[in-house]
Every structure is written in C-alpha cells, then in structure tokens.
Design brief:
Blueprint: E1 3-21, E2 24-35, H1 41-52, E3 59-72
Antiparallel strand pairs: 1-2, 1-3
Organism: [Clostridium] ultunense Esp
Domain DUF1659: 2-71
Protein name: DUF1659 domain-containing protein
Length: 73
C-alpha cells in the first residue's frame, strides 16, 4: 500500500515582535491564506520580508503552514 500526500492548503504566518512583558516575549501574528501550494520556500520568504516591511512591528519569525491530505494509491 502506497500513500501519497496532496497539499490542500498553504498559509503564510508572520510572527511580529510585540516587545517584552516582564520576562515574557509578546508575539503578534498575521496569517495570510490562499497561498499557492506549489510556491517555493525562497519565494514565500521573500514575500514575507516585503510584507513585514509594511508592518509597524519588526518581523520575529516566518512560518509556512500546510494542510496535507494523505491518500492511498
């Protein structure tokens, strides 16, 4: 039995540095959906950098969120 993976949904998550609350890091998130599943990581990161430059808070982390369906062949 072979199992294949099918990318169904890809989202881009920008985590922004909201500063510190005492000794705890505050992270603000922005999630962009409807990202093309075939996009390369380098291209997605480049877009994230461009979008981060439009934000008031500095970029802390970039994440690619994927939903993958597993199906028998």
């Amino acid at each position: 039995m072979a199992v294949v993976d099918i990318k169904e949904n890809v989202r881009l998550k920008l985590e922004l540095d909201g500063g510190m609350d005492g000794n705890r890091q505050i992270i603000k998130s922005k999630i962009l959906s409807k990202v093309k599943p075939t996009v390369e990581n380098e291209d997605l990161y480049s877009v994230a950098q461009s979008l981060a430059s439009l934000q008031t808070l500095p970029l802390f982390k970039v994440k690619r969120l994927e939903e993958i369906e597993l199906k028998e062949e």
